[in-house]
């Protein structure tokens, strides 16, 4: 699961069991991060709820192992006093990612303590044992249990439930940034999303109201030194968290899946200092502005999915 498995496995395990994932389809997306502290993000195109037909993780959960090096914890920093308060592991607040200038606190990543890692491993083992028990009793995940789990993970949305997915689209459209959310059938949405403001600490897209897990297409995390790390977990396609769940039919003839291929472009524009990026052709420079562009097809895996580290003057 790589770098973005900083959330507790308790949040990830339902996806491993159900084999369901919210991923991009065809899209154009751009992120602007400027030295004056402002940002602008747009995503136009498809978003889809994909369900794996053959999920080896659902039949062999015992093959997963806990990796302490992949875990991350956070500190909360009082902006006035500078007081640092360690947050319990897994606490990442994406409820209001748009503009956190009013937040009296800032946040930074930190290494987890031995006690926290021990607790994470205990919960990991419990989740794996539950999955083993479920599969041992039935040989497969019961459909009603699976739908209940998926509904909890995705804020009520369940693949194949057209009426439920229409309600899911209508609910999303009520939130800031969602200019268009239209359910097209076959688990596919056409969306237009745009937000801008003053960037403070964290950002994630999409943020799903009521969902127990957020697996973002794009996320920005502020490092302890002030650098902004941009990651794109869901753009990794089968090589990302989807890969941990097993092969997903990406628009092919296998089974009854109608999942569309991931096919898009992601662009970062900044006048800040670009410390790292993994574009194929490197960045282009025009005056003080740097431009990084990726062609995304969902086959790159987590290491090849778009990523960059940018440091702004502010």
Could you explain how this protein is built, in words?
The chain is of the alpha+beta class. The protein has one domain (2-311). The chain contains seven helices and 15 strands. It has a seven-stranded mixed sheet with strand order 6-7-2-1-11-14-13, covered by helices on one side. The chain has a five-stranded antiparallel sheet with strand order 8-9-10-15-12, with no helix packed on it. Helix 1 packs parallel to helix 3 and helix 1 (9-18) packs across helix 4 (143-153). The protein is globular and about 50 Å long. The two termini are 32 Å apart.
What is the gist of this entry?
The protein has helices at 9-18, 56-59, 114-138, 143-153, 162-172, 241-244, 301-304, and strands at 20-33, 38-51, 73-78, 84-86, 105-110, 178-185, 188-198, 202-205, 218-222, 228-231, 263-270, 273-277, 284-286, 289-296, 308-311.
